[in-house]
Amino acid sequence: MRNKQRPHSIKRHLTFSTVCVVGVLMFVSWLLVYSEARHEINEVYDARLGQSAKTLALSVMSWGDLPPDNFTQSYTHWLNAITANAKDDDTTTPFGHPYEDNLFFQYRVNDALVAKSPNAPAQWIGTSDNPGFDMVTAAGEQWRTFLLVFTLPDKRQASLLVAEKEAIRQELMTEVSLTIGLPQLLLIPLLAVIVVVLVSRAFRPLGELKETIAARSVDNLDHIHVSQPTVELSPLVKQINYLFSQLNNAWVREKRLVSTAAHELKTPLAVLRLNAENALSATTEAERDNDLTNILTGIDRTDRVIQQLLMLSRVEQQKNTEVTQVDIVPLLREQIAALAPMALTQQQSIELEGRESLWVKGHPVMLSVLFTNLIDNAIRYAGKGASISVIISHSANTVVVEVIDSGDAISDEIKSRIFDKFFRGHTEKGDGAGLGMSIVKDIVEQHHASIMIQSPYFSDYGNGFTVTFPMV
């Protein structure tokens, strides 16, 4: 047995995805900023090292073999004054900054160390005689160095090395990273809250739609309305309203069919029961035969009523189906062939006249019902020995189907009501529910066609039903 899959929450997925994507973008931006800051810090600090080396080089050129006598004493005094006056590593003093302890220089003439900062190692730390930047390890610390090689006025080779503790740069980079990264990190929970609020607000119309639909029932299929319509929800609301309309129409058709069936079948069933009781209590064979004949007649009428009700149901169901191009000639030929046996029982003749092919736009099933009802109506009411003709013709813009019979002309009263539901003009001849011609009118209207009655069709007799379709 398959496990029931947990419903997927769009709101939760959208919130989580947004926060994750923004978090990743923040992290990527932090990496880019850190990389650029690292590059800029190194550039600034390296430029300072180079500038310091050149400034010192210009000074040492006037020293000769040795720096002034008070050089070391003055330098040491300044560094001690910084230490004495600074409260911590971030405090500036009139003598400088405590960070100067992380800087030193060494001055060498030929291979002899001539001068250095008081905090510099006693041994030359340069790893080569190549000028430029380098990374050196001294006293267990990493130092960024810049070596400047130049010639003194007396042609001797001098080297000046300026060094800066690498930890200073790393500390600055760490502080820059934290300054940038921590606010972004703290913004992620705030962003999550904001996204949850915004998403919940954006999904409010969807929740309203859900509640509105939940309030609907089969007895209440009115159109739904959302107080805050959106571009995204409007097509959905429109489609739901369309489905509600279709469902409501189907529900109305079902109730109408049930009520019609109950109404139309009640009388013939009562008559059948009465005739059956009479047949059981008949005292003579003639009475029994008459009652049995009445029962057969009642069965035929009931069957006719059922057929018309089923036909009405089919027509109602086909109302919203798409139209196609239909060749009505073979369709008429098929319906005439199906109804010919019933015409023969009335000693009637039936014929089809017209072209071999004519096309109209319509529903094949509904057109079959239309022609069946017209021809069946002619057979039932034209009388014995009548002739029935189905004539097909066309003009530039229309296709015309005429069903003509040679029976008695229809009276004006019947003509005025012949398309009404449940109207039966000749109760003594017909056995239906009075739905046949109303179904014909419905189908004609659905095909944007027209129907006309001409009675009498000939000089003083006959009937003609003319249906005119738009040409394909």
From TrEMBL:
This is histidine kinase. It is found in: Membrane. It comes from the Bacteria. It is a multi-pass membrane protein. Its EC number is 2.7.13.3. It is an enzyme of class 2 (transferase). InterPro entries: 2CSK_N, HATPase_C_sf, HATPase_dom, His_kinase_dom, HisK_dim/P_dom, HisK_dim/P_sf, Sig_transdc_His_kin-like_C, TCS_sensor_his_kinase. GO terms for molecular function: kinase activity. Residues 260-472 form the Histidine kinase domain. Gene3D superfamilies: 1.10.287.130, Histidine kinase-like ATPase, C-terminal domain. It catalyses: ATP + protein L-histidine = ADP + protein N-phospho-L-histidine. The chain crosses the membrane at residues 12-33, 180-200. It comes from Salinivibrio siamensis. Keywords: ATP-binding, Kinase, Membrane, Nucleotide-binding, Phosphoprotein, Transferase, Transmembrane, Transmembrane helix, Two-component regulatory system.
